[in-house]
Amino acid sequence: MKLSEKKIQIMEVAEKLFAENGFDGTSVRQIAKAADINVAMISYYFGSKEKLLEAMLLFRISDYMSELQSTITPAMTPLEKINCFINIVITRVHRNRRMHKIVNFEYTKDSRTIDFDKYIDQKKENYKIVEEFIKSGQQDGSFRKDITPVLVVPTILGTYLHFYYNKRFFQSVLTLPDEAAIEHYVHDTLIPHIQNTIKALLTYEK
Amino acid sequence: MKLSEKKIQIMEVAEKLFAENGFDGTSVRQIAKAADINVAMISYYFGSKEKLLEAMLLFRISDYMSELQSTITPAMTPLEKINCFINIVITRVHRNRRMHKIVNFEYTKDSRTIDFDKYIDQKKENYKIVEEFIKSGQQDGSFRKDITPVLVVPTILGTYLHFYYNKRFFQSVLTLPDEAAIEHYVHDTLIPHIQNTIKALLTYEK
DNA sequence: AAAATTAAATTAAACGTTTGTTTAGTTTAA
DNA sequence: TTAAACTAAACAAACGTTTAATTTAATTTT
Lengths: 206, 206
Known about the structure:
Chain A is mostly helical and 206 residues long. Chain A has helices at residues 5-21, 28-35, 40-46, 49-61, 67-71, 78-95, 97-106, 117-139, 152-165, 167-173, 179-203. Chains A and B meet through helix 7, helix 8, helix 9, helix 10 and helix 11 of A and helix 7, helix 8, helix 9, helix 10 and helix 11 of B.
């Protein structure tokens, strides 16, 4: 199954609509109209609406190749590693925020028949990496020892995602007029805030 | 519009199903079957599926009377106030986690026609309270002055919500066999973790 | 207190739309 | 000439809602 231009176009349109109105809240006719194609093309290309979602997930995840290993070097201190990790992961999640929103919601459904295995593998990989960094910092004495590494990830990702899910709210409170302003705020203020938070949590003295 | 037993029963069933399968992913026939009533009763009682959701939101929000003002006294230090706030808010959100999940998702939809005003008011109120506590701590010198108060809330709520949305994942990692175990973990470990994080963020020396 | 009357609660069936998918045919490109 | 791309139309199923009839409960009249 090669990825023709048309297929990619359909997946991108679908991602946008799924993120905006939910999977169940989006009809194949809406997607077809927005992508300027015939409804039948969705079944023709992907088989079904569900399989379109799965194809889109794989398409996005394949973007995900580990830039982590290439930018984080063994010479770094544990804190530098964590900061680097936060920067990369938040930037990455922000870039794919629509997909994450869709998964975040669809994954919790009881009735789901969609295959999220690849996504979950990715997720578990992330947890392992953070855990490794934190434990090495705890061993060399630079981090507090009473921190549960597994709870650090929800703080990192949760902070960002809560910001994104309440975008409208923060836009008005922080007077961010457009998407470009939000982009800047995420990189210049939100990511440093999260880095600050985790640094403080891991290193402060009681 | 008084709240008969039947109406409450329908709203509770609807809340559960909406949280599990989404608003669009739940049909009125599913609700009717689960609540053991005739489908027509939903229109009869609430007018429409959308109005059922709105009625359910109001029903839950009315629970929300400010226990904050009654438990947080002026004699407390800013840090004590923040800790108390975290405890109350997370416990409250946890208790109403289903409703929060529904709102969190439906609110971001472009196509939404549902009235969330009461919910947003509640939310803004929370932000004002945290901001007040943090600013008073910054004035008396016990908190760092370079913290943006508005970003503290995403860290508090985001950490909890990310935990809840990935419940299945954490259940397996932390070996929490049932709902009771999760309940204990939230109160004994997650809430202290959040309190720790915010305390560290607000008080640590660089 | 019993009967008659009225209102509310509940039902099954039907309403017109919209849903995802398939079919059978046509156009385009190799 | 053959396979892939594409289309309009049709499909049955499911959707939220309404209708009209019936049962239950409350109120009023006798």
